[in-house]
Design goal:
464 residues, alpha/beta, six-stranded antiparallel sheet, 15 helices, 44% helix, binds adenosine-5'-diphosphate, binds aspartic acid, binds magnesium ion
Amino acid sequence: MKVLKFGGSSVANSENIQKVLAIVKQESKNEKVAVVVSAFGKTTDQLISAGNKALKNIAEAKETLETIKELHDQIITDLITTHKKEVRSEVADLFKKLVSIYEGLYLLQELSDKTLAKISSFGERLSSLIIANAAKELFDATHEESRKLITTNNDYLNAQVNFKITDVNITSFFDKNKHQVVFLGGFISSNSNHETTTLGRGGSDYSASIYAAALGAKELQIWTDVSGMFTANPRVVKQASPISEISYEEAMELSHFGAKVLYPPTIQPSLRKEIPIRIKNTFDPENLGTLISNNPKNGNEVKGISHIENISLITIEGGGMVGIPGISKRFFEVLSNAKISVVLITQASSEHSICVGIAAEDTSAAVALVNEAFEFEMSQGKIKAVIAENDLAIIALVGDQMKKHQGLSGKMFATLGKNNVNIRAIAQGASERNISAVVEKVDVKKALNALHEVFFEENIKQLN
Ligand code: ADP
Ligand code: ASP
Ligand code: MG
């Protein structure tokens, strides 16, 4: 058994979906396959944006909804013949439900996380239903509702999976299933009250890994619009190239630091069962892509460079901090209680300060909360008011073998220095699998290209 996942651009229109179906047909010739699909193209973005519009202007929200519906209708027209009428009416019902949710939003003037999860779920509910029906005309296939199988807590937009229940749900469904291919929506799940939850933006990769682990699949294939995990974001670094083999930990680190091609939580379930993950290109299926496993063939000591834009640094400092116990515990507690995730902790040069990198959108909340938490110490002058520095980015070099090689950080910082990139903070993970630098956002492109040239292109240049 294999699990295949196709992302938004792989299913953005009828032509692409035909490519997807050809791949699934081929992959399911000799074994059963579970196929996880994302919403068509940008549908999730559009559903969310319609939600925000509905708060002010219901007509505008309905216009966006109409655009989404046109795409879905077009795909049904192009790809379904036998059950066209039934599918059309099922899809029309789903859109009617959506309209009434948006109308409710407009009346209540409130868009809660619970409602946001509900409206975002329609993308995958629709896409999986339509693709499964298109597939049925070509091979033996069925559709199953992911919300029935993946059970989570109540964190509606970033739900935590209950693997104990989920694994049983998945195995009992697949034990009974007689069809060669099962299509499932990614990203969507439900809590114990059967309310819809979602696994976080980009979460379809994670859904696929959850299915693969529960089923003990032989391989998880993530099909996307590039030929694997690249040495750097190919949209920013033109010279970037696919990495042929990489370890789970390296892949996790690269994705945590911004390689969007894989949603960070995806690795964990597959790693637990040692299921190899292959990243492949829907538009170039012959390309081998990237293999993620426990024993990657030796490659470069630096496997990739990733980056996250829109970072802020939050610092608390003060001479009085040294003597007060539990300051960092309280600092991190405040952030974690507010669900603000800390992307990076920098090594402070003195004990007088703690500095963390967080997503820019969390900055004002973080500043307010930390100032509130340390109000007393601040009033006594032991700690200064929180400092926030904005418009920053993190750049990370990643590689399991980096710790065995001396001078890599020297080379990294010398390269940045030579290119006049100002380094605001440095962090090195305890695993030594990663060295990260915080730089100004405006310098990202220059910094990435310079580092890519030094770590990946120089050998090639010398050979030439
Ligand atoms: P999907 O819709 O298939 O899930 P995503 O848009 O989530 O696809 O991820 C694929 C995109 O990730 C690529 O088009 C590329 O722009 C971006 N990306 C960022 N960093 C990397 C990287 N290191 N390797 C490959 N792709 C990357
Ligand atoms: N459709 C969801 C999103 O856009 C999940 C995914 O595509 O992975 O975030
Ligand atoms: Mg994705």
